[in-house]
């Protein structure tokens, strides 16, 4: 009997060892199956998708437009967003010429915030039927507005695209305070100066200049205008001088001309 009991215990011990080895072998598979199930449950749940998209920093481009342009929308899978926000922001920026920079961030696990910085408007191009905004980047927006905002000049009579681009490039060099007192910039060529432009100032003075140099010379305008006693024509084409606008006074132009 003793021998039989001993043999039974040995068999029972071997069986337990067999079970333990099998459990240890199956454990990684159990973990893997559990993880797969959890991932599948997560993927079909609402938590795996973007719940909210918030836009801020924009003034001209509407929230609705930006959300329509955005590759990330409410309901987009988070797997398409994780680790890809910089690339997605770059893609969004390319959708509108008004966007100077775009930042995209995933917050609160499944919400997306989009921060937009727009190129400011620095002037308008007069075209038939309205005005096209000119951005700080130099881009002209094709969409027209009927009433341009005050404080920005209107460019007129530019039929040559190359002349217009050169004018805008120079205009961008002018300091904002001087831009603010420029009402209109008109292309006004002569035989002696095919690049001449005419600038009507908001203080009543008139300026003639050349496209290639007015970007630098206009910053001298405050100093020049402060010395004038009457509304005058300021010529910046070659050097800088002025004479009164009045026809009566203009007849004595050679004696009233002032150098700068």
Automatic annotation (TrEMBL):
InterPro entries: Cell_div_FtsQ/DivIB_C, DivIB, FtsQ_DivIB, POTRA, POTRA_FtsQ_type. It is found in: Cell membrane; Membrane. It comes from the Bacteria. Pfam families: FtsQ_DivIB_C (PF03799), POTRA_1 (PF08478). The chain crosses the membrane at residues 26-47. One of its GO terms (biological process) is FtsZ-dependent cytokinesis. Residues 48-119 form the POTRA domain. It is a single-pass type II membrane protein. Cell division protein that may be involved in stabilizing or promoting the assembly of the division complex. This is Cell division protein DivIB. The lineage of its organism: Bacteria, Bacillati, Bacillota, Bacilli, Lactobacillales. The gene is ftsQ.
């Amino acid at each position: 009997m003793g021998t039989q009991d001993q043999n039974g215990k040995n068999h029972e011990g071997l069986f337990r060892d067999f079970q333990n080895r099998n459990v240890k072998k199956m454990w990684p598979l159990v973990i893997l199956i559990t993880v797969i199930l959890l991932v599948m449950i997560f993927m079909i749940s609402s938590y795996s998708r973007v719940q909210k998209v918030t836009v801020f920093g924009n003034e001209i481009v509407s929230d609705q437009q930006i959300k329509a342009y955005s590759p990330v929308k409410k309901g987009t899978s988070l797997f398409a967003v994780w680790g890809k926000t910089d690339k997605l922001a770059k893609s969004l920026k390319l959708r509108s010429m008004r966007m100077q920079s775009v930042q995209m961030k995933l917050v609160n696990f499944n919400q997306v915030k989009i921060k937009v910085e727009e190129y400011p408007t620095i002037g308008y191009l007069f075209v038939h039927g309205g005005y096209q905004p000119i951005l700080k980047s130099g881009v002209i927006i094709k969409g027209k507005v009927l009433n341009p905002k005050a404080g920005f000049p209107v460019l007129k009579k530019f039929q040559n695209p190359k002349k217009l681009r050169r004018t805008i490039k120079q205009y961008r060099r002018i300091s904002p305070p001087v831009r603010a007192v420029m009402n209109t910039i008109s292309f006004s060529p002569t035989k002696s100066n095919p690049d001449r432009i005419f600038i009507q100032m908001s203080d009543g003075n008139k300026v003639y200049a050349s496209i290639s140099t007015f970007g630098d010379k206009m910053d001298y305008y405050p100093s020049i205008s402060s010395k004038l006693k009457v509304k005058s024509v300021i010529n910046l084409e070659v050097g800088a001088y002025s004479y009164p606008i009045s026809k009566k006074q203009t007849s004595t132009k050679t004696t009233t001309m002032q150098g700068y």
